[in-house]
User: Fold these one by one.
Assistant:
Number 1:
Amino acid sequence: MSNIQALKGTKDVLPAESHKWHYIENTMRSLCSVFGARELRTPIIEHTELFQRGVGSTTDIVQKEMYTFEKGDYSITLKPEGTAGMVRAFIENGLFNDPLPQKLYYLNSPTFRYENPQAGRLREHHQFGIEIVGSYAPETDAEVILLALTLFKKLGVHDLMLHINSIGCPECRKEYNAALREYLKGYIGDMCETCRSRFEKNPMRIIDCKEERCKRIVKGAPRTLDYLCEDCRKQFEGVKACLDAAGAEYVVDPDIVRGLDYYTGTVFEIISNRIGAQGAVCAGGRYNGLIEELGGQKIPAVGFGMGMERLLAVMENNNVEFPKPPEVTVYFAAMGEAPRMKAFALTQQLREKGIFAEFDHMERSFKAQFKYANKVGAKYAVALGDEELARGIVRVKCMGDGAETEVAIDGLAAYFAE
């Protein structure tokens, strides 16, 4: 029988890599704190209806990519994106009763999509996202975008460009959809099967199709910016004014419509030129109708999602230097049964003081223990044998310069704590 391997589209995060994740996650948590956002964790499984209603039945996610299964009387889906679950939790737990706006984030959230693995996106990948709920103000849209841009700056990621657009509200979208259908009706026979099914239900999704033949068709299609109502136009101008005031560079890109049905108004992508064709490292926008669609009050919201694996790939392609994982401070090298037991107890004492201490679990020779201490980068090696134990001392060796000193066993924890 062959060895069982990880499923296609999944990946192990090995100990040699996990410190990079910790660095990114800690930076995200710190930044969210500065922006006043609090963490909300939701389950990785939800009722399938949540995504059918929230994400949209005509999206690629719902039509092609969800992991859905039946369990008893329920249809259950592994979470394909973060926003719908956040909104469900917001409604179910009455967070709308707290002062608005509510700034909420999720971090390292497992997300599942059945698609061909791409650069930085796997079938199981992890997302960081933020949602600001309760405000229509364009400053809110800009704040979400600026949080993402600030994060990239703090992580040392450059060569990024912010692309923004507005896809309007349901009212001005009616006029746009009519114009889009008029343009597309002569090309129906040339479209992919999915886009033909979208023609009546949701023609704007055709703009987002990844099929080359559909991309060619929509090049000359009407754009949403030409059909915005006065309120949507004012909102979009306000977002641009806020970004200008903050000194953020951006490109107005009418091709951005986003692949989820809940978006209204502002949509954006932050694009890197360092990860090939799949260049979006962060994407989001406003979704003023989603909370009401899922059974809540009419409350506006705006947010984004960011793939952790894709962010990590961009950082590595930018040659970002990650902080090194912590190295051993004290390594105990002991010989003899009684010295080993004492060294084991001393290791625990130091750990309780917050000192990174290690002990030889392999019963190596004395010489091999010192070699291992050097290999793991220990700053100090503490030697303890029968003679040292009888005298009530240990020999502390500084691995950097080789200097040795004797320290009383009873005072060892205090010695290193200083």
Note: The first strand starts at residue 38 and ends at 39.
Number 2:
Amino acid sequence: MKVLIVGTGYVGLVTGACFSEMGIDVRCVDVNKQKIEDLNNGIMPIYERGLEELVIRNHAAGRLGFSTDIDASVKIADIIFSAVGTPPDEDGSADLSYVLDVARTIGRNISKYTLVVTKSTVPVGTAEKVRRAIQEELDKRGAKVTFDVASNPEFLKEGNAIEDFMKPDRIVVGVGSEKAKKIMERLYKPFMINNYRIIFTDVPSAEMIKYAANAMLATRISFINDIANLCEIVGADVNMVRKGIGTDNRIGSKFLYPGCGYGGSCFPKDVKALIKTAQQNGYKMKVLQAVESVNERQKSIVFDKISRHFDGNLKGKKIAVWGLAFKPETDDMREAPAVVVIDLLLKAGCSVVAYDPIAMPEAKRRMGDAITYCKDKYQALEGADAMLLMTEWKEFRILNFQEMKSKMNQCVIVDGRNIYDKEEMKDNGFVYHAIGIN
């Protein structure tokens, strides 16, 4: 069984590496020549815990290859996974141009039965568009080649993607034929040895499952952030509220942690795309519109708190930012709340110094010399008038209070992820602001 992964972004590279780890012959292709050259030399385009070792080991064993020649790769593949990007258009809908380009390339090159699997997050109906694009190219060639199109959405958490792929809580596969179903069963059998967690659906349902899952998680985050903001107004403690509702087994405690909003490559994009899909079909997703609105407002809450602390006079203040990635264990800064806050700080006339364990090269690529980058968290505090905690990296959890106080100009902390204890911070001489806590 020869598997081709088209696109070596986050999803494609993780998928290819994990399949090869199970002994499957995998080739990954991409139009980016530099990226492919780097991968062939063991240089990763992204940071993901455990990925580098997996790629290097399986590449050395000959099970995982990288190429820019998509035409030749398509011709020898039995299963083709399309894992190219689906960035949001200006109106919020998913841009399917890359997905359909891949489909047309497949149609121009296949000569035997091939299973085409959409791995990218795509709106309902995309698989049918892919099928038509492939068939149109086959018709132009006058080629009578059979193929199937399936949907296999990913559910990978950045920072834990390898574990998620190798030990999935479920695998969702949308198929339209028994042949496609059997092929996908065989492909995923190595991952299902201990517990059979594969869910077969029709193709449109599989496409919708991915969006619905991310939309639900985003909804929980915006819900608890809205509750947190009200807690501050009425004098309640959101941490107590969170624990009180989380012990109800109908609700549960996951994704009920207040903070400065969600970011990343999935939640913002998928919520927008689902809202747009509904609009295109004459329906309004009122709940998700509110989810998106709450999250956009929440991203500036840390800035609002520090601005209020200084009575709106931030000009000339030196502000330290701990954490730049949208979440721990990744260097991904797409839609990161830290980016929003830093932009507001700079516009207010602040100087910004920052530290992140992993994401600083990505931050430099995005923001250049607009801010100062530090070698560790304490260096960032030298002469700072305040510290803003934006990403809950583990190394930020235990603090050396004396060292912090010796470096900071003013001992002011805004905890955008509620990882510190209010009383402990106050007892150690810090002015402490958090989310949903007075």
Note: The chain has a mean pLDDT of 95.
Number 3:
Amino acid sequence: MSGTYIPKRMGGAVATRSWPALAGFAIVVAHLPQFLHRLLDGDEAIYGSIAVLMNLGGGLYGDGGVDNKPPGIFWIYALTFRVFGAYQTWAVHAVAFIAMAVTCSLIYLIARDLATPRAGILAALFYGVLTAAGNPRLLAANTEIFMMLPLTASVLCMLRRQWFWSGLLLVAAVTFRQSAAVDVILIGVALWWLEQRTTVLRAAALTTAGALTGLAVATGLIAISGSLPGFWRWTIGTLVGYASTNWTPSLVWMRARDSILPFLVDMVVFWVAAIALSTRWRTLSVSIRLTVVWLVVAMAGSLAGGHLSWHYFIQAMGPLAVLAALAFDRFRLRRVVAGAAIVGIALPAVAWSAFDITADPLTYDFAAPVPQHQAVSAYIAAHTSPSDRVFVWGNWPALYVESNRVMSGRFPGFLRGFARGSSLAPDNWDTAPDVWPLLDADLRAHPPALIVDTAPADWSDFGMYPMSNYPVLAAFVASGYHQVDVVDGVVIYARNGA
């Protein structure tokens, strides 16, 4: 990039009515694969299975389903299923797309306020492409895509010095994912840089008031829809152990190779542009410097858990899109460089789109032969009635969704986020001592018509954890169930006498 600036009038000339429409069309095309699959990620199955239990009257973080995520994602799924029907994931995908599109609009406003309408259009386009150019998990209706809507709105309010709303929206973002809380650092820097010394305390008080208001509302909603003690136990108490397990060096390298390296390499054009702009720190306005800090903080939030799944980096895609757009808006590019940049953005996007359309989202990262989950789901549906409940041992909640059956227990899967198949002891948050009495009570209250054991088939590296290693589960099966079939190595048990 050269240091020659494009005159500001160029931004207005380019931002004609056709450009927003073309950018919107490109974003829609990039996200089409998310409407071609019922499930895009196992996490969607977790959220969907719990949402169905909630809609049957169960309390979140209690008998209505347990997970270590904040409640926002479950509220979205449960509400969507209430309107469109249980396990209607196409509707959730549509809601996620709308959330992404609204976030694009907010990113447009941020970049427009920082530079020109052209920068805003580019930033919105870049975010739309970034959130689609990756494996199917990136397109899933996951916590990050919903988190980014209030989180981006919080940043917009922060840049406009609307401190009360910035604090409240930050809390709204945290209700979807804990890592959003790192933006407290960004707000602290913004208060120091944007406010006068005589007004900074008032601004901080307004931010705190907004955050406390958000906390009060969120606490009330959790109390209505679930369990406050359960929320603390499963979403706060599990964080340290979850992160420490994920930060094993071998696991970090494996996951970095599968997620962060492709994210950096495939999106190199955006990174080069953002870094080129950031290196001109002394010439940047305070607001643009804050956007650079936003990117740094967002990357820290994306990496904090150590899990390093690709969709974690959606948190960084917002500021990355803004900075890259500002760079392209500010600097004049030679035609060859501009052409190379377009190719560098388009090629990964097209390649990933082709992959996402053709790949099975639930098995794309498995070596052949892949788990025949659709065959097992079809068996469950054929040998149970809609009123029956099912229990799946392993980490395959997708079987509940694909068979349209309700899970018997509150735990949709086990050893979630754990390095299954490693030498680590399976002391995960969802196999802790207090899990088993709860599971036993659930299974006795809602005896499953079928028990589906994925461990013998080693689905999701679960072969090292047979049911026989877990006394409560082994005793329950032995007391009332017998083996009836094996499908793709998955052992299926039915109730005695059935």
Note: The longest strand covers residues 481-487.
Number 4:
Amino acid sequence: MHKLTRKEEELMKILWKLKKGFVKDLVDQYPDPKPHYNTISSLVRLLQEKGIVGYTQYGNTYEYYPLVSREEYRKSFMKGVISDYFDNSYKNAVAFFVNEKGLKPEELEEILRMIRKE
């Protein structure tokens, strides 16, 4: 799966929330100052070319929808982060959060319970 840029991720978060929408609907979901219609139109076409967004055509208008679920993207993204930044080690990733981000003992215990269930 293609890695998304920050702007593409921002647009996908909106599309995942809406489930489907026309460019105008997507633009309306942005905070002020809203991006230009043509900017979002170009961005959604790029996502369509990457196979992440599909569309239904109604005459000259297109209604877009995600082809990749938020969960599918999250899994792919996190695998990339673990591979690129933690030498493909989940242990190193957890250690990072324990040491650098103040993962609390009770949160770590909850993680261990989740692991033991699987």
Note: Strands lie at 53-58, 61-66.
